[in-house]
Every structure is written in structure tokens, then in C-alpha cells.
Amino acid sequence: MYTIESYKQLFWAKSGNFTRGRDPLGIQNSSIAVYSTLLPGMTNLTLRLRYYGFYLWLLDKYHQLPESDGFKQNHMGQYTFIRRAELILAYLMKNKFPNEQSVIGSNFAESKIRQEKEIGYYDIQLGADKTKTTVKGSVYWDYTSGALGQYYAGSLINMGLINIKENFFERTEEKGKELSEAYGASISQNCSQLLLKRINEGKLYSNDFEILKDIALNQNLVNTPEGDFYIKMLLNSDGEKSKTALDYVSEQRKESIQLFLGIIQKSKERKIWENMPQYSYHLCVSSKKEEVSEATYGWYYYYLNEITHHSLETVFWGLLVEMEFGNYSLQQFLKEITEKVIQNFKLKNIVLKDYIEQLNVQPSSISDNLDNISDAVKKKFSIDGICYGITTLLHLFKDNIPNSKDISDYAVNHFLNTKNGNVIDVFERYVRNNKELEFKEFVKKVIHTILNEHIAVAYKKMGDGEKNLLKFLIEDNYLVHIETMEPNFTSPRLKTLFNFTRDLDLVNEEQKLTVVGETILEHLNNVEV
Fold this sequence. Notes:
This protein is mainly α.
């Protein structure tokens, strides 16, 4: 059997540089676009809210430096200033609050804990400064402009807090200035002066931590100007960039927070917030669009896209497993896999539309199908997986036919209808256009379409040929297996939202609403959205 390694030796051109990727059918972008619309200003990598204020305060202090200062000579000097501050914060958190999560540079800081005992201080300059000769992995963060540039800048720009001008980061005059001042009010003058001194010196001492703890990510921000700013920021409108096709500014982040807190309030189950998309789906399948908030409908649309993608990826996974253990021409493969699937369905001559009509629509159908998919993948029952993937797709289609106009209207209004993989397009191409086909021909067409989609997407993503994303090849009309990839889900920023609510003390360690959280939810529920 051929393997990735053997391909590297067989081909005269180096096309064996295969990479995994997470989206073999190129359809997940529609899910990503939806949750980006629902929670603007957050990403799956901006997990701690107080970094927002930390960076704004740093940029203010940087621009207050005299023009003759070494850090002011070029944008690389600014990056060094920021990088040193990020590493100092990492050492502080690792020493004072070692159990806190999502701290930038924490692994590096942990590996250097003994350094201070050996030489008497933490070498911030050595651990933070990035030059042309810096060896990859020898500093806390390899990206030149630090985690600010790699992770947080996009969110800060989205929130109207910073701009980038000639490679320099600059705070905005209104919101940026307000947050910088609010953060500055949360830290003592001694803390401010010491942090700037240590950034300049490039050294940090253990006895600094008590003074520097004001900048810790887990400081209590309740009833502080900084905490009040964050709440106002998150509950504000989504900004002019969110303006819809109907020409109104969206407030889906605020509505998502309201939905998030409401779900936590109603349940005693830990991590119930992770089920917010499923909750929205079940609510909207049985409700009219005007009966729910725009964000609730958005999370329904996200989940509908997500499960639709998962069903197609499950079919693709099953096809790859079958390739792995057989030697087929393309036509043999289409014929034999179709026959296996039809035998598994135990169907005779039936038209697709009649099969859909017979499907039993139950609220639990989708979750049951997902459980079946998970079990099939775990046991590597490839044909079962293909059947469950197709069944899930058809259940989704039938369940959501009554909502098709509202679904389309939501997608068009938020400019999501053109995203590759959007559920309206998938339903049209895979189901609606094939309703008159016999079920067997429908299955064959689904299999062929998915194979073609993967090849087209993989070649498109390869671009200049440096990365090969193909999971199988067709050589002389024979299918050659490369790698089997299991179906997966996207991560819709809910972990970030949870972290933010924890940082603001809206949710406690037991994942229940605090008094502050209850108050904010009550306010949101009483305000006409």
C-alpha cells in the first residue's frame, strides 16, 4: 500500500508535502463567518479580556516616551517594548497565580522559573527581544510583534481601540484613550513606574511581583472604571462594519451575551453555555423568526451550517476509510460504495423526495444522528458513517424547509449567503436539485460530488504548490489513499465569551451567575432589543 513517504520517493517533482488541514471540503468558512458576525471583537485566541486594557495602556506609555528613546527609533523598537511587557506579565502570572489559564508566554515563563535563583533576576531582554539572528523557540513568542500583533490587534481594531499606521500600533483618540485611562486608574503609580523601568532595563526581580500584581489578568474589576468600560464595550452595538443589507447596525454581540447569561441562569449544569448553538437550533426550528432575537437566530443558522458540514465530512471520512482498505478505479469505487450504502439503508426502488417525505421529524433526530456518527467514527464503521451522514443531511433539510425563506433572509441581510459551504447552497446542490432522482442515483451523485469537491478545494488551497492538502489521489483512474481525516467541528468563540464573563465576575467558579451577572441580565431583559 502506498503511503505519504513512498510518494515522496516516487514522484520526480516534490508534490508529497502533504499537510493535514481542518477543512477538507472547503465548507467551514461559512460557519466561521457566522460566529465572527455574532461575536465581533473576540476570537478563539483572545481569551483574556484584560489584555485589551493592558495593550492600550502600553501604547499610551510608549507614545509618551521622548523621541530620542531607543524604543522610538522604528517600529521594531515598539515591538520590543510590547514584547518585554508581555513577558513580564507572563512571569508575574506564573509566579503569583500559577493556575490561571490563557496567559501569553506562560510555558516559556514556567521553563525559566529557576533562572532567577541562578543569576538573581529574570532576563527579560534575552527572553523577549526578537532580532534577525534570534533562534526560533528561544524567546517567549516567535511572532515579531508579539501576541498583540498575532492575536489581539484584529480584535482591538474591530472594537475601535487601535489603528496601525506605518507598522506602528496607535490607540484611537476616543475609545482607545478612554480604555487606556480606565486601565491606568486600576494600577498604582508605583506599579506603573516599576513596569516601565523593568521594560527599559530588560530585567525583572522576584520582589517586583508584589508591586506589579495590579496588572494581573485576574484582578477584580467590579465597580472600577476599567471594568465598567469593558461591560459598556461588550454591550455596545457591533459598529459600522456590522451594518446590514437592511442598513441597520447590528447588536448581535450584546444579544449573544444576553442569551449566554440567560442559559446559565436557567440551568444548574456546568458548561451548559457550550450548548448555546444547539439550544438556539431547537428553539428556532419550532418558533417564528420574529419571536427570537437576531442573535438567537444567528446561532441557529450557525448550528445548521455546522451540522450540515459535519454530515458531509462524515460521508467523506467514510469514503477515505473505504479507499484505505481497497484498490479501486473511480468507477468501481462509485459503484461498489453506492451498492454497500443502499444495502445498508435496506431500500429498493424509491425516489429521493418520497424517502424524505417518510422521514420522522423529531426534536431529538439531529442529536441522535450525531451520536450515531460519533459511534461509527469511533468504531471505524465506514458505511454506517456514510449512511448516518446522508441521513443527517436529509433530516436537516426536512426539518428546516419551513424556515427556508427566513434562513435565506438572515444570510443575505448579514452578507453570509456568498460564503462557501452556506447551508442554502448545500441544500440546493445536494438535495433540492436531486429530489426526482432514485435514491440509489442520489447516493452515487453525493459520493461523486464530495470526491470532486475535495479535489477542487485541495488544488485551490495548494496555490503555488508548496502544501498538498489532498487526502487521496487519482492516478491512471485509480484511487490512491493518502490520509483519513475524521469529521470535526469549528470553535465558535464561546470559550472566549465564558472567559470574559469570568474576568468581569459575571459568572463565578461554579459557573453560576453572580449578583453582577444577574443585574446585567435583568437590565438586558428589560431593555427593548
